[in-house]
Amino acid sequence: MNKKPIVGITMGDPAGNGPEITIKALAHFDMYERCNPLVVGDANILEQATHFVNRPDIKINRCEKVSDAKFIPGTVDVLHLPLIEDVSRFEIGKVSIEGGNAAFQCVKKVIELAMAGEVDATCTNALNKEALNMALEHYKGNLSDGHTHFDGHTEIYATYTGTKKYTMMLAHHDLRVVHVSTHVSLREACDRVKKARVLEVIEIAYKACKDMGIENPKVAVAGLNPHCGENGLFGTEEIEEIKPAIEAAKELGINTVGPIPPDSVFSEALGGWYDIVVCMYHDQGHIPLKTVGFVYDREKQGWKAVEGVNITLGLPIIRTSVDHGTAFGLAGKGISNELSLVNAIDYAIHMAAGQK
User: Fold this and answer.
1) DSSP three-state, residue 63
2) Which pTM does this prediction carry?
3) Domain that holds residue 76
4) Per residue in 231-268, pLDDT tens?
């Protein structure tokens, strides 16, 4: 094997569009100039996907171990996990226990490979949270060392890498956001805005930028309330929790600015004022990223671009992901856009190079 990083790519829920966009992404032969991609999944599902996207010329190389991979354009190497009993009878576009289990097993396996140093980075296709947790409940934790529920990829990665301090980063080119909280109710998200957690996320964000080669990262911190609370008129979280966290970060030598009203901080970040934005909750960060990354063509009545990368920071291994769901409504039609996956693989390559 050459010195290009090996990137382990999960197929995602086999009922979704993950297998299709994987074939499309790896049909870009220049991908093999940048990395050695290895898909973790059911080879039969990937073979089916080549027909969905009308690329029967793409060959599937079934691998039992990483060293079986060829890493040559025109051949997709698949670390084969026999997860779907009968591909011809498996329903595309449907939530199922079998699909949820398959997606989970792929994630668990790619984490094991990364922790063992057999792959340099991991990249995940989308899983369906309902299907995932149906499978975990069905098997009563036997799949996951006793766990019967996960909120998503991030929590699976944190569990199997033993990570306590982590956060999600979304990126679209040089617009980057990280989150104080993600998959909780908005009411609970407000309660989670505490000095210790905000400071922790600022530190993780700063380190991530440094790891990506940004010499002196400038970290912007968004407020929680309208107008950052107007000196307590609309809320006191900025005064009591966010500002103290920012001051503590400055004492650590981190170039931190804020709190900045959320209705202006992202426009400023797009203008190059900041390298990363610390957001207080899920939608505060997701909405601006998807607004610039997801572009719908009105005339053609279709998605012109579905871009954006989801990255878990704070892990001992690299994990990037597509920034979209399983697209059950598009699965099997061969029309899903692979740009988000291409971007996610490229981010994984870039981060692997940074670590080396």
Assistant:
1) strand
2) 0.83
3) 6-163+315-355
4) 899 999 999 999 999 999 999 999 999 899 999 999 99
CA angle 352, 69, 317 (to 5 degrees): 25
Q: What is the mean predicted confidence (pLDDT) over 144-166?
A: 83
Query: Do residues 12 and 157 share a domain?
Result: yes
Helix (H) or strand (E) holding 219: strand 218-222
Contact 96, 131 (CB under 8 A): yes
User: Tokens 């982590």 — which residue?
Assistant: 166
Closest CA to 39 of 141, 139, 107: 107
Q: How many domains does the chain have?
A: 2
Residue 101 sits at φ, ψ, to 5 deg, of: -65, -45
pLDDT, tens only, 100-143: 999 999 999 999 999 999 999 999 999 999 999 998 888 876 66
Percent of the chain with pLDDT over 70: 95
CATH of residue 180: 3.40.718.10
Q: Are residues 124 and 176 located together in one domain of the fold?
A: no
Angle at 76 between CA 100 and CA 309, to 5 degrees: 60
- The mean pLDDT of the chain is 91
Residue 1 has what pLDDT? 45
Domain assignment of residue 303, yes or no = no
Q: Transcribe 241-262 into DSSP letters.
A: IIHHHHHHHHHTT-EEEEEE-H
3-state secondary structure of 311: strand
Q: What are the φ/ψ torsions at residue 145 (nearest 5 degrees)?
A: 55, 40
CA distances from 47 to 23, 60, 80, 213, 217 (A): 9, 6, 11, 38, 44
